[in-house]
Amino acid sequence: MAFLLFYVTHPDEETAKQIAGRMVQERLAACANIFPVGSAYWWQGAVQQENEWVSILKTRLELEQELEAAIRELHPYDVPCILRYEVRANADYEHWITTATQP
Fold first, then answer.
1. Residue-range domains of the chain with CATH
2. What is the bridge-based pairing of β-strands 31-43 and 3-10?
């Protein structure tokens, strides 16, 4: 059984924790990992270099659209980075993700 990893960047730790915590609380994600990262990117015609925070959220395939919409609703960036990867894991971990995202 496959599931999704969402990779989302945030401007600071507080925002990352707030959004990730809400997604887990609402059972749209089974869990989230949060960590700092340095980023370089083009924005408004110039290269920017910033410190950001990343959250990796794990969820069921069926929750893809709902999770993205919920992240977008709370995210402060004009163009948030919301990537998703379809992945597989050991069977009991995949089962845990399924049960942790059930209402």
1. 13-81 (3.30.70.120)
2. unpaired
Q: What is the pLDDT of residues 30-70, one digit of tens each?
A: 999 999 999 999 999 999 999 999 999 999 999 999 999 99
Prediction pTM value: 0.95
Query: In the predicted model, is pLDDT for residue 78 greater than 90?
Result: yes
Confidence band, pLDDT 50/70/90 cuts, at residue 103 = confident
Structure tokens at 66: 């709902």
Are 67 and 47 in contact, with CB atoms under 8 Å apart?
no
Residue pair 40/46 in contact by the 8 Å Cβ criterion: no
Q: Which residue has the tokens 């993205």?
A: 68
Chain-centroid distance, C-alpha 97: 14
Extract the tokens encoding 41: 């990117």
Cα–Cα distances (Å) from 76 to 59, 97, 98, in that order, read 22, 27, 29
Cα–Cα distance between 56 and 7 in angstroms, integer? 5
